[in-house]
Amino acid sequence: MEKLALLGGTPIIKETPKELFRWPIIGKEDEEVALDVIRNNRYSGTDISEKFGEEFAAWQGVKYGLPFCNGTMSLAAAMFAIGLKEGDEMICTTKTYWASAAPANTFGVKTVFCNIDNNLSMDPTDIERCITPKTKAIMVVHYVAYPCDMDPIMEIAKKHNLKVIEDVSHAQGGLYKGKKLGTFGDVAAMSMMSGKSFAAGELGMFITNERKYYERALAYGHHERFDEKHIQECDDLRHYYYITMGAVKGRANQLCTALARVQLKYYDERCAEIRRAMNYFWDLLEGLPGIRPIRVDESTGSNMAGWYCPHGLYVAEELHGLSVNRFCEAVRAEIDGQCGPGGNECLHTHKFFTEFAVNKTDEDPTLQKSVDIECFSIPWFIHCDKEWIERYASGFRKVIENHEQLLEDDEKKKQQGRWIGTGSKVR
Ligand SMILES: *Cc1c(COP(=O)(O)O)cnc(C)c1O
After folding, report:
1. Which of 238, 262, 286 represents a domain boundary (last residue)?
2. What is the DSSP code (8-state) at residue 352?
3. If both were cysteines, with which of 67, 101, 173, 212 could 92 make a disulfide (CB 3.0 to 4.6 Å apart)?
4. CB within 8 A of 367, min separation 6: which ones?
């Protein structure tokens, strides 16, 4: 038996090779476009942002792309675009970043949370349970880059005449059965914040094929383009020109859209490399007890995009009930970090929704199922360096094969997720 590093044995990796994980990849071209904005004071214009909006829409294969100052704002604009208003309800998966749901509160819209499946994604079989006469929309989140099962989701939406918003913050460029994520719903919105898969500082993007939704998103937060030149179809918006209807200033900083234009050029090839690396990592761990990959079979035409925030599913029963917290602690000791329990905390457990919101979310004991699904994060390999990936995989393998050493001092605490972005564990 090999002694685990957590218990005083020798770790597999003593120091993280930083280049393997550095993201985004920044080259001379990025630096030059950023300098041009700085030297010429072009932050607040819209020329660069308009170009990026067009290029991104073309890359997505949709008609309209509208950059916002961040993903949260683009999601609020998406809710406004499809006409969500006071008294309506929106169904959202409970395990996601807060911005998938919280902006609904600013419109007096109640969020109704639905369960996740074993890939941590919205469980399509739980959606109809959440529908009431007030339901107007489904917020679909391609969580940790796993493409949601869009066929049944779109079928349910059609049957009940519901609008669909896709939050593509984790999965830009990903495919579901050969079709790009973000093109299934009526509208899509996403973060392009510096830590995300498509990373360009602080940036968001709204996309749609419908002129009227594009115009409403403009009206929501782009005062400098909210005028007769840009509003062509939505006559009812004309009275409000020049003051945004969201009472927010949502346009993007052109330092970020300039970077985003360069990032877009290389994005697909960089994601393909990440997928090669991540698939190789999971192949090495195939069949081990206690863990399951969260990934798709690419032969179906689906893929994991830039494999943002990669996670695996944890099955404690297969490791004598070892807690996921202790498991991750032991892995971290072997590989110098990069393995944590829980993912995002389930949103229905937060008082923002159950106490503060204008239309409070109802308590729903069936959602405990989502809280109980255990998972852990794994390293996000940016390059397919097989030797290093093999070392990382052997760190996980070592903990699994020697997990009995950990059972004695295991506090058996339940999984602790995170309110991601704060670094805090609350429970
Ligand atoms: C990051 C994130 C957002 C919010 O985007 P920001 O750019 O940080 O405002 C929304 N939804 C999901 C799923 C995210 O991960």
Report:
1. 262
2. I
3. 101
4. 94, 113, 115, 346, 348
- Report DSSP state, residue 89: E
Domain count, the chain: 2
Which residue owns the Cα nearest ligand 1 atom 7? Answer: 71
What is the tens place of the pLDDT at every residue in 133-156? Answer: 999 999 999 999 999 999 999 999
Residues 398-409 as b/e (b if ≥16 CB within 10 A, e otherwise) read bbbebbebbeee
Tokens read off for 203: 């940036």
> How many CB atoms sit inside 10 A of residue 108's CB?
14
Query: Same structural domain for residues 294 and 409?
Result: yes
Over residues 232-283, the pLDDT tens digits come to 999 999 999 999 999 999 999 999 999 999 999 999 999 999 999 999 999 9
Q: Residue 425 is encoded by which pair of tokens?
A: 């564990």
Please indicate, yes or no, whether residues 131 and 75 belong to a single structural domain of this protein: yes
Range of the domain at 366: 5-23+266-426
75 and 98 in a single domain? The answer is: yes
For residues 292 and 247, state if they share a domain: no
pTM exceeding the 0.85 threshold for the entire prediction: yes
Which ligand 1 atom sits closest to the C-alpha of 141?
13
CATH of the domain at 284: 3.90.1150.10
State phi, psi for 227 to the nearest 5 degrees. -155, 180
Q: Which residues line ligand 1 (CB under 6 A)?
A: 70-72, 75, 96-97, 99-100, 141, 167, 169-170, 191, 193, 204
Rounded to the nearest whole angstrom, what is the distance from the C-alpha of residue 269 to the centroid of ligand 1?
23
